[in-house]
Amino acid sequence: MEWLVYDRVLNVQERLEVEEYLRQRAGIAPYFAPGSLDLSTWQPVSYPGASGGAAGWAGNLAQREVTAPAASAPSLLLAPLTTSEQVIRASLGAGTTPGFMGFAFGYQDRGHFYLFDWNRQATNHPDDGSAAAGMRLREFHVPGGQDPDSQDFWSSPNPERVTTLLTNTVPWKPGVDDDLTLRLLPGRFELEVSEGGLSLVSWSVPLAGPVAGQFGFYLNDLANARLGQVVLPGEAPFITEVGRLGEGRGALTWVNGLPPFVLQYRTNLLSDEWLDLAPATMNLTHEIPLAEPVQFLRVQSSGFSP
After folding, report:
1. What is the pLDDT of residue 52?
2. Cα torsion angle, 229, 235, 236, 241, sign
3. Residue 39: which of 92, 76, 79, 84 has the closest Cα?
4. Complete edge-to-edge strand list for the sheet that includes strand 214-220
């Protein structure tokens, strides 16, 4: 048994970092991805469907992951930001019940977006039609300002409302976390799904223009999904909070970027010299010394020049 002793009460983020340290020492898979986004401000979007009401999204792991314990009608959980020409990485994990999980992107409004969805087993719904096991990549372009209906999500029989771009027959596995990588590039987008480093699919879709809009998770008729660990490696780090912990000590918190992160400071805006403030870290928060005169702070990430 390994014991760690602290001289103060740890906050949520610090407790997660301690748990991650102990898991690494024990050879256990990472608890949450360094650089992953806070999902607490993401926006739920619900549609009518045959399987219950809206998804009951619940945040975990300092809001880096969400779960939905009960099956629901088609539901999205969207980031409160718009992106284009970006790389997005996320984790998809399901429980043991059948159903659909996935990822939406290029969201313009309730009837216009791209959707990657993944089904565990073939289903034949009495009202909504048939859906094969495997992955689908579809473009929703419902005319007239209408919402997609439950049939659009389940079987997409009308190409004037939904276009199916690509499919395969690979089902998701119960209790397994899979990695999704989406690259929004000029003239195309690329989508990859892998399991423990093994590629399950790699799709490239040519486009006439860029894909811009919100992005986020998708569920339909699926209980006990586990979704999260969203990382934007193409975004430079952005400092979100500088907090005071005690006399001469503070905590710096940031989002985005790829670890390792290097914290730097300077005391004069006219100077071009930045000095290292603390050792490199894999986390999104770090304790720092607070000194006079006032310090100007920045976070450096691999591949970026602040």
Report:
1. 74
2. negative
3. 79
4. 43-46, 75-78, 214-220, 100-109, 112-119, 134-141, 162-167
What confidence score (pLDDT) does residue 214 get?
95
pLDDT at residue 5, rounded to an integer: 44
The verdict on whether omega for the bond into residue 293 sits within 30 degrees of 0, i.e. cis, is yes
Could you write out the three-class secondary structure of 148-197? CCHHHHHCCCCCCCEEEEEECCCCCCCCCEEEEEEEEECCEEEEEEEECC
Q: Do domains 32-231 and 238-301 have the same CATH topology?
A: no
The Cα angle at residue 198 between residues 192 and 199, in degrees rounded to 5? 25
Q: Name which CATH class applies to 32-231.
A: mainly beta
- Token duo for residue 4: 């760690």
pLDDT along the chain (306 residues), means of 10: 45 52 50 74 89 84 86 94 85 89 97 97 92 97 94 96 97 94 93 93 92 94 91 78 78 75 82 80 77 75 56
Domain residue ranges in the chain: 32-231, 238-301
Q: What are the Cα distances from residue 27, in Å, to 31, 33, 117, 175?
A: 11, 16, 32, 19
pLDDT at 12: 45
CATH code for the domain defined by 238-301: 2.60.40.10
Closest of 115, 50, 38 to residue 76, by C-alpha: 115
